[in-house]
Amino acid sequence: MPTGKILKELARYKIGTFAYIIHRHSLLRPEAEAYIYQDERINFREFNARINSLVHALQELGVNKGDPIGLLSWNCLEYAIVYGAAMKGGYILSRFNPRLGAEELEYLINYSEANTLFVGPELINTVNSLKPKLPTVRNYLSLEGPAEGMICLQEVLTSYPTEEPDVEIEENDPLHIIYTSGTTGVPRGAVYTNYHVWEDTRTYIINTGLQPSDRHIQVSPLFHIAGDTIFRSILYVGGCNIIMKSFDPAEALRLIQDEKATHMSIVPTHLVAILALPDVKKYDTSSLKMMWYGGSPMPLEVLKRGIEVFGPAFGQGYGQSESGPAITHLPREEHTVLGTPKQKILTSAGQPDTGVQVRIVNDKGEDTAPGELGEIIVRSKHIMREYWKKPEDTASTIIDGWLYTGDIGYYDEQGYVYIVDRKKDMIITGGENVFPREVEEVIYRHPDIHEAAVIGIPDPYWVEKVHAVVSCKKGAKCTAEDLIAFCKKHLAGYKSPKSVEFVDALPKNAAGKILKRELREKYWQESGRRL
User: Fold this and answer.
1) Within 10 A of 114 (CB to CB), how many other CB atoms are there?
2) What's the total number of domains in the chain?
3) 117: closest CA among 135, 99, 90?
4) pLDDT tens by residue, 84-101
5) What is the DSSP letter of 163?
6) What is the pTM of this model?
7) Which residues make Cβ contacts (< 8 Å) with residue 180, sequence separation at least 6?
8) Which of 7, 38, 416, 517 could cross-link 183 (Cys pair, CB 3.0–4.6 Å)?
9) Same domain, 232 and 364
């Protein structure tokens, strides 16, 4: 750590970059706890030093500012170090979903043009098998221990100098690429600069009121836009991030209790799993100030049960991989309206974030009136710059500065936005439009149902029919006839499921989203329909 002219040293990196943030905390809060992962705890001084060592090592390996690098791993402490090295070394970081198959990873790594790949222990064998098919990758580094044919990151972090690297980071330098989930087709990479990330981070901090004293349980995977947002927001304010390799409901509650955590960011399936624990109330979660949810719509019945257990700790954000992600939010204060005339807003995604403009338009591009359905489009200073190497896709998604989300919704007179469904998920049965979320909301009200997904499947008469895929609570004995009859009590006949499929568990991606594309695939694979 430099001595003497600390204020001059604080001016080393440009404001508007995370190189500045990391360096700032190392100077002003050097002993503050920055990260906890399993049995290891590091402060901001140590975090900055490890990042600097990695940047020096990468420079020696011939990795230069502006080069794409890749990261394939589950959450871990070294994941944070690599991300920090991208921030301070000026690299363009691509983080890949570790649940993808070998062919999918081959496509994405080559698409990213990464010249360096960091690999978690669970993915070593997969990557070694792919090496002959990855022509751009020159350097392979293993996380969390040594691996054959790879440089061990742990050894690198103790072998290179810790002084600040000589790299000039600019606001408009690209920082990372976030890949779309691929649930509706081939993933595309959304490119973000330091400026975009800085702007979005500040929005999230305003929405959640984060403070340096806050401690966050990092449940969401770091390759996902939601996990990325809370991760960098905690870093921005100088709070502590408690990293979980993957989600475990009981372990998450234990960490809240033992570490006195104040924040956790989840998706609806996480809350469903937590509430299914028979001893959920035995944990002391009184330190929790915010349980932030997003990723997919939260069924109202699940939210009600969550509020009963955790109290008024919930806040919601809506966004997507291409939007930064901040679009709208529903603050914690507005989750106290259960049983009041305002309760309906709990089924909304909230109002537009400060600095975000939201419109809802019809197929002609005309703005809809309150209550009318249309596509949600967004303009802000933090939407993606472009799709990586896909100019035509960029041009069809960002039109006159507006990002077309592909989400269908409506708004009310107060500007609350209600998301009905994904445009591609809409079911057209007998000429009638059915939005799966509406049906799923009803199914979740059935006392025997644990999780549910509604999809459209082929039908010789209706062309497409409403089909429910559900898992039941332990010990429940719900039948298809029971569930269909229940839905018909609350929905129009054409919206009610015409068939029901029972499964032990619904397929999900690493971010916890239910994979409807996978559920549809076996029904539509011979139809030629794009899923």
Assistant:
1) 28
2) 3
3) 135
4) 999 999 999 999 989 888
5) S
6) 0.84
7) 187, 188, 189, 190, 321, 322
8) 517
9) yes
